[in-house]
UniProtKB/TrEMBL annotation:
UniProt xrefs under Gene3D superfamilies: Homeodomain-like (1.10.10.60), Tetracycline Repressor, domain 2 (1.10.357.10)
Keywords linked to the UniProt accession: DNA-binding, Transcription, Transcription regulation
PANTHER family reported for this sequence: HTH-TYPE TRANSCRIPTIONAL REGULATOR RUTR, TRANSCRIPTIONAL REGULATORY PROTEIN
Protein name (Swiss-Prot/TrEMBL): TetR/AcrR family transcriptional regulator
Lineage: Bacteria, Bacillati, Actinomycetota, Actinomycetes, Pseudonocardiales
Length: 249
């Protein structure tokens, strides 16, 4: 997830900039506006939108500000706002200080999954900007420290961390897109989706096509217990990482 550090001593321009780079301080907070209030309002707007979208106009309306342009003084740009929003969610992720690498990764994964479910838009925006804010760096630093007992180099430890965080973000992105799709086509519940799909499934069942899929689709126990929960997939990932550790030692 983190970008690679350049070995060059020459500063490299970053397209779109990051709010953390040579950031001018935001203006003094007023009763109505501050950086914290703008970011909190943006997150609330994104949380409420089915696609997790946010506009400066919607934020201004939420804050009771007449001109959306006034918000830019506090966040620099729309990209700067994204940097700040993403970093706030990283601040909600907790890394347990257990001393056991597997417990550390399990706690990281579960905490990240809880944060992603609260803010599904984070799953998309986290891939759009390098995670270099103070909360993101603190999260990665704590996770790297929690994996010190592996006696593996930082590259291997970061790979383990990215594997777990990537599962949380990928699962959240799938949930966000499915939610938007259901809203768009009007199939908001599993029952509605099942009713809409039933004639098609009956037809391909009668045609004898895709027999293995049909066997699964017609199994009344296919969701009992719920398969592939995040918690279950996380354990599979940890099992695989544990095997890699055993092989290397």
């Amino acid at each position: 997830m983190l970008l690679a550090m350049s070995s060059s001593t020459d500063p490299q321009p970053v397209p779109g900039g990051l709010v953390w780079f040579d950031e001018p301080p935001p203006p003094r907070a007023t009763e109505q506006l501050s950086r914290e209030k703008v970011v909190a309002a943006a997150m609330a707007v994104a949380d409420a939108d089915v696609r997790g979208e946010v506009t400066m106009r919607a934020i201004a309306a939420r804050l009771g500000v007449r001109s959306p342009m006034a918000l830019y003084r506090y966040v620099g740009s729309k990209d700067g706002l994204v940097d700040l929003m993403v970093d706030e969610v990283y601040g909600e992720i907790r890394v347990p200080a257990s001393g056991d690498w597997r417990e550390c990764l399990r706690g990281l994964g579960l905490s990240a999954w809880e944060a992603v479910q609260r803010h599904l838009w984070f799953a998309r925006l986290a891939f759009s900007r390098p995670p270099l804010g103070p909360h993101a760096l603190a999260t990665y630093d704590a996770a790297l420290a929690g994996l010190a007992g592996l006696h593996q180099g930082p590259t291997v430890r970061m790979g383990f961390i990215d594997t777990v965080l990537g599962q949380a973000l990928g699962s959240g992105l799938a949930m966000l897109e499915e939610r938007a799709m259901r809203e768009r086509v009007g199939l908001l519940t599993e029952e509605q989706l099942a009713a809409a799909a039933r004639p098609y499934l009956e037809r391909i069942t009668a045609e004898g096509r895709y027999p293995h899929f049909i066997e699964w689709a017609n199994d009344p126990r296919r969701f009992d217990p719920p398969p592939h929960s995040f918690e279950q997939v996380l354990e599979w990932l940890l099992d695989g990482l544990a095997r890699r550790v055993a092989d290397r030692t």
